[in-house]
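Provenance and format

Records in this collection were gathered into a single text stream. Each protein contributes a sequence line and a token line. The two records reproduced below are adjacent in the stream.
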Amino acid sequence: MVSAYTPDGGRGSFMTWIARLFKIGIVGLLLGLMVLGIFVAIARGEIDSFEDLKASPNGQMIRIRAADGTVIQSLGPSFGRWLTFKQLPDEMKEAMVAVEDRRYYMHPGVDPIGITRSFYVRAIEGRWTQGGSTITQQLARNVYLNSNKEFGRKIREIILALAMETKFSKEQILELYLNKVYFGGGAYGVDAASRKFFDHGAEELSLAEAAIIAGLVKAPSRYSPTADAKAALDRAEVVVEVMQDAGMITAEQAAAVKPAQVKIASEPPQDSVRYFTDWMLPQLDGLIDETEKAIDVWTTLDLKMQRAATAAIVANAPKGTQGALVAIDRDGAVKAMVGGTDYVTSNYNRAVTAVRQPGSAWKLFVYLTALEAGFRPEDKVVDEPVEIEGWQPKNSGGSYAGEITLRTAFAYSKNTVAAKIGEEVGTSSIANMAKRFGITTPINTQPSMVLGTSEARVIDMTRAFAAVAAKGRSITPYGISKVTTIDGDVIYSAKPQKSIQLVEEWVAGGMTDLMQTAVATGTGRAANIGRPAAGKTGTTSSNKDGWFLGFSSGLTTGVWMGRDNARAVGGLEGGRAPAQAWAAFMRVAVANRPVEQFATEVTFPERLEEEELLLGEDGEPFLLDENGNPIEGVPSVDDPGLPDGIRSEQLDEDFIDKAIGRRPVDAQPEPDEPTGL
């Protein structure tokens, strides 16, 4: 019997099964393509239009500008100008295509060759080392997905990429990609990256610069030129080699590219400007509702003044101390703010956050209350020992001048006179005056409060002095002048602040009289800047705090110095370092402002015996501050820089003998009179 099986019959059955599998594969492929096509069609309908994609940045960018328009800080993602495909440099387009997607113009959004190579490398090395994503896939991921390495996310990415290729042209996709891709450092798009790393727009990119930017996409944080310049330059050389290998540039062009010679823009320093922006930014929430569009916040900060303020604090603050400065213009605009000697080591803003005892600077409120109660600068008061509820205030040096004018008492910061005023007008009235002028911290009403034992903030004290300069009208400090969109549309503009008359103009004029005298001949003499200036020193017990606050030519500035732990600082008095810092800043700040005379006829006080000019060891004249210490580095009696009328008469030897407690050899002390000072 013959078998039914034959070799030919077996081969036929095998080929039949192969044919069936092929047909099944074809049908499955067609069904898969149909399903994929359906998904792509659905995705295509959900993809935003080209114009919508152009107008949808990934987060809000906030640029903070100084008064002159200089960008002083950027927050959130940074987006540069949108560049059309024709505006984008050819070097940039070719570099990006070469390094990220060489077959970009040939595939339909997904590159089968790239995917195959990625799987092959994965099989050989056991891990994913090469990505198969095209530029279109990367765009889809950046706009609609995340970077999680999940199979489901990859499928969605492929569908979106295919949908994009059916909806947009290659030029549109590349335009979207180059304007939206992240290049590190908060920069999105080639224009933002170019401005961040090279300080110019993307239209000016050279081939070397384009190679550096193109190399960032793979790992923005690793290859950022501001973080690791060497890694960025090495990566750029790889990009140039790939461009040559792809035939986009010749060997001669590649050899001429020198990434190492590219000048990288330096990162803006974390300097004292940040004290101002840290104070100003929280105010933005109450001014605008815009939370999506990129905005420019225009501030009142004057960069020249800010640099002068920083230099003045750093140069004059005693070793181991901190300093703060606030400068307010006549309309309340904050022109400069320094919250410490170094923002990098300490971002604590002592100008607006710290509360410290103002010492004799608090006498501003004592004398304002006295003037409002009917005192006049020429009124006679008696400087003598006084006791109030067991408290016995002492003057610096422990001496008393007897009968003097109120102007003289303020100029030489007589503590006994301030105590008498407090007893007469009431410490509660003084506390109310301080609150009226903007002091927001708690105020005690003990008799000693007249000497500044209540704590206050630098900005509040400066605001109070600014109100006196404004002839008694309230001043509200502000830092934002306007807010615009990146296209220039104004969405907020500061309006003149409503002000109220805190005290009558004649009260403010009388107070200005007293403060001008303090600078001209009193404890604040170190603050003389060669033009009319009015101010007051302040020093707390054991020299823990030193203050000087004053105004000139429409600008009011407050300076504080001390240690954060409130420990004593040797030689720190308001009439020394703070007054010198104030003068150093104000000379620069008001240099281009017209000289303004104060609205008061100032009559300078008579010299006091115990606080007149004395002779030091070197024979040069010097002054005593409110703590009885000599003031160094102040103008001499005949300083030609002093305004007319401020120079004092020469002192004779008899006056000097009395002032320093020295007696002639033949003079004998009275039986009950102590010798010496």
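Adjacent record:
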Amino acid sequence: MTLTTARPRSEVAALADQLLAGWLKLEGRDEPPPSSPELPAERLRLGERVLLDRDAGELREVPGGYVRRRLRTPAPHGTDQVTITVASAGPAGPTWVRLEAEQLAAGPGVRAGGRVPVPELARTLLPLLDATDGPVRIGDAPRVVRPAGVEALIDELCDPERTLPVVVASLPPATTTDGWLEGTGSQLTRQLTGLAALYLLDHEALPLFNVALEYHKVYGGAVRTYLPEVDPASRADGGRHPVLPRHRIEEDVRRAAALLAREPGRLAAELPLPALLAAVPVYQPPAEAPVRSRAVAGHERTAGAGHRSADTAERQARADELQRVRHSLHRSRRRERLLIAVGEEQRTALRRANAQVQVLSGRLCTARPTDGSPVSFGELVGRFDEFPLLEFTGDQKEALALDGQCDGTGWARLTWDGLTALQEYAAAAVRGEAHGDFKQWCEHTPDGCHRFPPRKAVRGESRTVESHTKWKRERMLPVPECVDSSRRAFMGAHLRIGGGRTAPRLHYLDDCSGSGRIYVGYIGLHLTNTRTN
């Protein structure tokens, strides 16, 4: 927990001492004596395996001072340690308060307990501090947001000085504000004390909030964690702020509370320390050498002081390195968010360009029947490269033979229409925007694209044809080796060219999800089935 308060350093330290003493008394431990300015560092033994370290002094390299308290108490698998550090630059200006809770293992082969619970000191101290994180007030319980407070909440979410998450809960339908706060809310936010700002939108404020934050909504009893640097205009940024749905909360409130606290806890551990707290020196416990005689005692104190000084320097170097790593990680995460935002802008621009291309392609295709459509299959075969996502693998002679029929010109134009629609469908399918097969595309052709009659697009052959060895073999048509190692594939999907059940056919294989192309294996007279001979 890292926060600021307007209270002076000495007052915050006195509050911490008072609360620690009260807690120790309730636990049946010895109460510590009042701290003395003459003892800048001291270690107090207040019972079996109960240690209280107290120190105070000047900050490193910057003006100001600090007060620190560290309490260690026995735990089932080791030791619970709570450290509170208070630092300020002087009488004026804010006071920084940092509270850390840890579980220390009993030895190298012993594993400490699981998640560290919020210490009681945080719950009792936080309400007394009027603490803030930049512009955001941090309390120990959710604050109710009415319609008049929606704008202020959004300002807090978007404020660049905020470093802690803001957790916003939506009130479930038919639930009262007091009922939620006293029931689900108190259990759900118990592990967030000091780690996040907490809010609850009432029924009237909820729609106003969601209208203002189109890509960052929360509703239906869900809870959303808004990480720092919210960009309300970015759809991509919306995915960065996790949502805990209502059904997960109601299934198991305790598990939901643990899930909700995970991200704020990670963020609190990774954030670089503010400059004043980073300037607090590492703790150096006082000497505890036994006194045998004056000469021996003096020698032991001197040797012990030298050893402690080297150990302190090493621990200080590790603490400074950890601070540098935190800064580096923080900068990397900010760069990552920037790159994601830039990538989303580029994808949006690309989608718009593709939409414009589709509109223009549709207009061009509409104009082709009177301005550019082939009048024969000979011309059609020669212009097949105008469809970059289609590949003709069949025998051209079968297609050219259609030119000798009485309806050859009309068939050629209808075939061209089918190929044009297949090309537009393939372009959408490769982008993942087709939402179905070619039959569905024809039934729901997007605006601006060429329309091909859905009744002329057939998904596959009848069961009779597929089970007939000879007829099925006719429809095993050429494909590249990358599609099938045998260089043949069954092409049951086809387009009806012209009217009548025995009219010409165009057989194809849709491999947009594989090689990203459609293979046209046959254009010609109707292949053999029950109605042909």
